[in-house]
Design goal:
single chain, 72 residues, 3-stranded antiparallel β-sheet, 6 strands, elongated
Amino acid sequence: MHIDVTRKDEEKFKTAVFYCNTNNGSTMFENGKKVESKANRAVVFDGRTLHCGVDCTDSLRRVVINFNYMDE
């Protein structure tokens, strides 16, 4: 589990994961919840939340685009 960036003074930021293809991989969060990889869907969450990617086994690749941004 990880966070994507470390901000000074615990500044708040958002992380978005956009799923480019459908497969049996997912994004898992520290609280045990997971979001399945489904094409053209995104999950947005507090960037300070621990998370990790789960590899797929039913496709050659799991393709995601990851965004980290300030939401002011």
